[in-house]
Every structure is written in structure tokens, then in C-alpha cells.
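dude i think i finally got it to work??
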Amino acid sequence: MMKKQINKIIFFSIVVVITIIGCSDDDNIDTTPPGVVSNVTVVPTNGGGVISYKLPSDADILYVKAVYTNSLGEEVFRVSSKHNTSLEVNGLNQTSPLNVKLYVVDESQNMSEITEIEFTPLKSFIFLVQESIQITPDLGGVKITWDNIASKTVFVYVHIMNEGEETVRILSSNNPQENVFVRGLEAKELTFSTKVEDFDGNITELEEKGKFTPLFEEKIDKSSWTLISGQSINGNAYEGRTVNFWDDVVDTVETDADNSYFIITRDNNGGALNFPLDIVIDLKKNVKIQRFKVWQRAYWYQGGGVTYHYQEENIKTFDLFSSNDGQTWNLLGQFDIGDPRDAAGNIPTEAFQEAIEGHEFSLPNTSEQFRYLKFSITSNYGSTQITVGSEITLFGLDNL
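look at this
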């Protein structure tokens, strides 16, 4: 009986202590709201505004919150930490006054009283992008350029009408100046219209930009190409030959019957792979190009369908040069196949598919007419002994 009474006393004591502690904690909870922002000013922007303010003197401020209704009728908010004295409201498509409620929030999530402001945003940047869009015919398609002064993400919808059949290409960018090629179009008159959308769902009306005829594009025939060996690295080792780089045979994973690639070894080139490794070709004719494809070596003698793509000996980065005399060179571009391998060496399926189909690259603009091509390898995937590659194909205007 005495034991039961002792247990009851202990239990009661614990309840009392917990209650006292709980009451003490409740007494310490901060329920005092912080002060309000002051000296508020607004600089309107295209599709929003930057609100500047002075923070109150409270020591426990966490952030400032702006609440407003966007142009789609949705209530949204933006926040800015206590380390800032401004915040941006955006995603607007209006030139009518906007009401914004500003709150100061402290570390206990207390909110200050409302500070209301009103300002009128400038015309949204999506309209400025739409107005700036220029379309010019190019090889196999068109080049589309635009200015984006806000440097915010835009989606440009390109509607292409071909004898009653419409296709739509969607282009996206946040670059201040953009130029994009739309490829795979017939060399016939097509009607182009565009509209522009921002990340918040605001969108312009569809606007016709005009009728344009893409220039005829063809694969450059390689049957006349010859190697200028005196200016080129030695790629003739084992089954590899430098001239295999343009024999129109792409190496595949499945069989060694199509082993068509060059093999550059350090032993055949002075004992070291001194990048850049140049392959110089006389096309024996004049061409213009805008894009090209490059293939890696694919077949691996380990067999069992194991792929050689992205292995350490394959080409990774390179520069492309053109010339009309084989001596004075013009840089067409610097290119990188990229490295899709993760830390464990795993490669995504889509990266293998890209390697199989050929890595496609576009020049910033259609090249000037040229006769000589220099493919200058600047790195592989890590080997210091061997560099390999399978094929290159150019697209443009042939035999000018």
C-alpha cells in the first residue's frame, strides 16, 4: 500500500513539473509583431517593379514579404531576407496600377501590420521580345534572333505554315541576346508567326512575322577529300587510318566489320600526345557550311556489346578552322562533345543514343566559302597514349 502511495506522489510531482515548464515556455513565446517598413520607393520594370525600403529596428527580423494579385488573377507573394533592403515583384502583364501589401516577418513568424503601396509596371518584357524578333533564311531553315532586356526565361513559339499544314517549334532562353537556328525546313516559301510566353504564363498574341524561303542545304560530298599529311598528325596505327575520318563509314558497337576510325598514338607522334592534334583536309572544291556531325569510335574489342563511346581514348573537344590557301586559318568554332559520365562511370541511355546518331554542332553563322578544313583535337576523355574518332560530315552548300 505504501509503495502505491509513493508512486502516486512521484507521478503527481512529474505532472506538476511538466505543467510548470509548459507554462514557463508559454510565457516566453514571442507574440509581439515587428515594426513596419518605411521610406518605401518603387522603380517600375518591364513586367514588375523593384521595391526598396528601410527595415524596422527589431533585432529578430527574418524577411519581408510582398503579397499581390498577378495579371492572371492569382494571389502570389515574393520574399526578401533581412539582409536586403529591396525585393522584386514580377510576372506581370499589365500597365494598370498594382496594389502590393508589404509585411515584415520575424523569427517567431509574427507579421507586422500591412504597408500598402501602389505602382504601375512598365510594358512586360515579353512584348519587347516579340517586337524584337527577326527571322532570316539560312541553310536548311531560318535563323531567329531576339533581344531580352530582362534576361528572364521566355518561351518563343514559332508557328510555321506550309501550304495549310502548320508545325510549331518552341524555343526557350534567358539570354539578353539570342539567335537560334530552326532546321529541317524545305527550300520553299513558308509563313512564320510567333508568340512569346514568360515563366508565369503571360503570353502575347500570335503575330505573323512574314514569308521566308529557307536556303537549300545538302550533305557535302566527301569523295574528293584528301589528307594534307605534312600538316596533320599521324592517325595510322593498328587498324586505324586518318582518312577513315571521312570515308562515310560510321563505326558501330555491334560488329568489327565496319571498324572505320583513326588511331593517333603517342608512339607514332614523337612519344607524346601534344594537343592540339590536327587533321588537315583539302576538300578539292569550295563549300559553305553551317552545321556538321562528328562520331566517336564505337566498337570495343572486349565484345559482348560493350560500347567504346565516351571511353578515355575518344575525342572530346576540338576546334574547327577553314582556309582558302591551306596556310591562313579562320576559326569556325570551339566545340565540346561533353562528358555525361557520373562519378561511378555510368552513362545515360540518351547520351549513348546521341553518340550513335552523331554529335551535331552548328556554327554561329554560315561560314564564308572555303576549300581547306582543319579539325584540331584539343582533348580526349583522359588517355595520354591514344586518341580515336570515327567520322565527320558537313552540311551546307557544296561545290561552289
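The chain has three helices and 24 strands.
im so relieved honestly
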